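Input sequence (182 aa), recorded before submission:
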Amino acid sequence: MQSKPMVIVVSGPPGTGKTTLAHRIAAAIGCPAICRDEIKEGMAHATPGFVPGPGDPLTMRTLSTFFDVIGLLVGRGTTVVAEAAFQDRLWRPGLTPLLSRADVRIIHCTVPAHVALARIHARSAAHHTRGAHEDAQIDDDARLRTHKAFQPVDLPVPTLTVDTSTDVYDPPLPEILNFLSR
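Predicted structure, token format:
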């Protein structure tokens, strides 16, 4: 009997180190990392003059593209790391159809709000591609509200919360990888 591919969901509020952790996990286990922001940045690159906003058409296409790519890979038997700052209300509809086709695991990234804000400022200054995202357009008060109100993915699957405040995760990467191998 062939086992199912795994979908490793890496989620949390903006600035919690999700993308870094997703790429580390993908490299460690040997699978692709599918990152929503990277898809959106590629789509924005091909859309001159794009300005992000709540519910803009490009953002909506990014959401469906993200889940289409994950579904395609899972359908072909590929384990993937799926990373996005989606809250439960966006993850749930995209992941629920995959529950019968994949072994889904959730890693929820957390950091104190001040760490997230500092990271958002640093990456916005260092990467011009961040302008493709709505979080680059909002003020710190709105970012803090978003951070505090974040609703983690809540599905009946194994879940691990990881403090990503520093490069030494809590629990550390070997324990995260052990969680994924169970």
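Checked by second reader. The helical segments are 18-29, 36-45, 57-75, 88-95, 113-126, 140-149, 173-181.
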